[in-house]
Write a structure and sequence with these properties.
mainly alpha; 294 residues; two-stranded antiparallel sheet; 63% helix
């Protein structure tokens, strides 16, 4: 909910709150109290949380002459802000975020399993209705009107939406409400399933061999760009050796990936430069795996 200067203010206190909490548990409460006091010295207490603060309080330390009802309102606002700020700072303190979709590492890793990084789209009522009636009701009218009005190219998408809305709004109000509810139910179910996939413990992925094989197949396209980026940023060579019990390959090493090249006219990777020594290293790794899984 925080915006502009208010967001900047809260962000500036995350590190210090973390340090206070790591020292002694009571220090975090003391620091929180100071943050709340500082907040109300900078921002008017009457400011709604939904409003974007455009100016700081002109006289931060001025004594207000408040009516009794206003004093009660201000105290309620202070109490509420204490709870809100405690929740925000404590959540960020432990390194988590409120929603798993906002955890960039979580969203990155689940891509290895094939889970989409995009939240399922929430359809509007007329879009939900169109799934059942577009071919029978909308399609012919849409094509005829496009031909008659000479509509082509990208604008046909928005025009199709308009035509669909016209047909949908011509339906009974009860049917419109029914499809609005259906769209909400389907969206809630799809988003809940997607969220559950984001927070699923990665060890559960091994429960399905087909799921595991699919993830292994995606490993090169997933890890390759990461290794390449690390090589570019660090200016160092990066090697990734992945191995374990993989039924399709008899438990052999699954992948060997290296980023970096030598000083040859055409730079060669480690395995390309000296394949025998590269294989010797991976053989030692294979021996280690035998002790892990035998």
């Amino acid at each position: 909910w925080a915006k502009g200067p208010c967001l900047d203010f809260l962000t500036s206190h995350i590190t210090s709150y973390h340090a206070a909490a790591m020292a002694v548990s009571t220090h975090s409460q003391v620091y929180l109290d100071s943050v709340v006091n500082e907040y109300f010295s900078k921002f008017p207490w009457r400011l709604k949380v939904s409003e974007n603060p455009t100016a700081l309080a002109l006289e931060a330390n001025a004594t207000e002459q408040l009516l009794e009802v206003e004093m009660e309102q201000k105290q309620c606002k202070v109490t509420a802000m204490c709870k809100v700020m405690d929740c925000i700072l404590a959540t960020l303190k432990v390194g988590n975020v409120l929603h798993p979709e906002n955890d960039m590492w979580n969203c990155l890793l689940v891509q290895l399993s094939g889970i989409s990084k995009k939240k399922p789209k929430v359809l509007q009522a007329h879009q939900q209705w169109s799934k059942d009636h577009f071919n029978a009701v909308v399609r012919h009218d849409f094509k005829d009107r496009c031909s008659a009005q000479g509509i082509k190219g990208k604008v046909t998408v928005s025009f199709c939406e308009c035509v669909t809305c016209e047909h949908f709004l011509a339906m009974y109000v009860q049917m419109q409400a029914c499809y609005a509810q259906l769209a909400k139910h389907e969206a809630d179910a799809a988003i809940a399933q997607w969220n559950n996939a984001l927070i699923i413990h990665f060890s559960h992925f091994h429960d399905s061999s087909s799921f595991l094989h699919s993830a292994i197949d995606r490993l090169p396209s997933f890890a390759g760009p990461l290794l390449s980026g690390m090589h570019i940023i660090l200016g160092m060579h990066i090697t990734l050796i992945v191995g374990g019990p993989e039924p399709r390959k008899g438990g052999n090493i699954t992948y060997r990936m290296h980023e970096g090249g030598d000083k040859s006219p055409v730079p060669r990777s480690w395995q390309g430069c000296n394949q025998s020594k590269y294989w010797a290293v991976t053989c030692f790794f294979q021996e280690y795996l035998d002790n892990c899984y035998s």
